Predict the 3D structure of the following.
Amino acid sequence: MCGIFFNRKFSSVSVCFFLFSFLFSACGLENLVFLNPPENVVEVNFGNDNRVLDEIRFVTGDNSGVTDFNFQGTAIYYKIFDDEQAARDSYNYITSNNSSSDISAAASSIINAKKYSPLISELSTSSVLVAGNSVNVRIRLNRVGKGEEYPSGIFINDVFQSYPRRHYQAGAKKLGFEFSRGKYKDKNPIPQQTDYDVSMRSASNNDGKWYVDLWAFSQGLDNSYTYSYSRAVHLGCIKIEESEYDN
């Protein structure tokens, strides 16, 4: 057990610094790494029925000042639900963890308790989707209509990078979010209860509506290979209807 003794003539600032330094060095505790979360989020609201607005936007946190630490970038995690209320319940649970004194608690609950999966791209399976500081990000999971006015894609500083893909894969195939029972069913199959990135009430989804809940946070590793996460931010919940992609 650590014991702390000090002289009353120390200033309060000196005492605080001494206590902080002593506790983290003499007691063998790891240094805390506080990461800035994504900001300027344009969130897709629950219940949104305007497909044009189904685009998540944010700016990655500026963590350029973090030293002696392997800052990896910004991870985006998602889960597919067949019920909007279930998605809302998950959102409420994660949000309650964001109020914790442990700044990494919400991100940890996303990964470990709620079993969300990292969003990946057509080009990479890395769980850190966006590298870099203060980067403008736009992501559309699925196209709107049959034209090219609102295509799916991952855009960094307004430059197209790749297509978003589910972490769950069918063999070597990277699966998309334009869920279809028609001609696109091989590339974008209907989610199944056995898929690890899906939460379903029963083995079948009768109304053909799906809800993709998304969160983002900064992450990195310290010298002991321990992860640190920023506060998690909600990017939105996107409704996807099979009927839009059956043809």
